[in-house]
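Support request, please re-run this one:
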Amino acid sequence: MTVPVDGGPVTHATLNRLADAFHETHEQTYGHASRTEAVHIVNVRLSAIGQLPVLALREHPAPHVGRAYERHAWFAATGFVRTPVYWRRTLQSGAHVPGPAIIEAVDSTTIVPPGWHARLDACGFIALRRIQTQAHP
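Re-run finished. Output below.
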């Protein structure tokens, strides 16, 4: 059973209040309590609120931009199409990658569909945007 405990130092008084609260919760839940039996703490959950310093993002340019390879990828708008694959670590800040394309990293894969393009900002974040097409009258 989960029994809340007040914050602060853990003292004998705190443990006694915790045991009393456990027995009370047990009685409310199951209709009985064995107040002479020992209470065992099995798990401890902690919630904390703190203040972190401001996150400082910095530019992290890569050595070069290069296509790793190409592979066939299926898109609803085009079906299968030969698609360039880029390693994310090789894309420099400000790089534009027109879709269709695939950007691979160790921890993620970003798909750039046809009609879209990807741009890496100064911090290396990828922004996807739909390419604006002119409407035909």
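The radius of gyration is 29 Å. Residues 67-130 form one domain.
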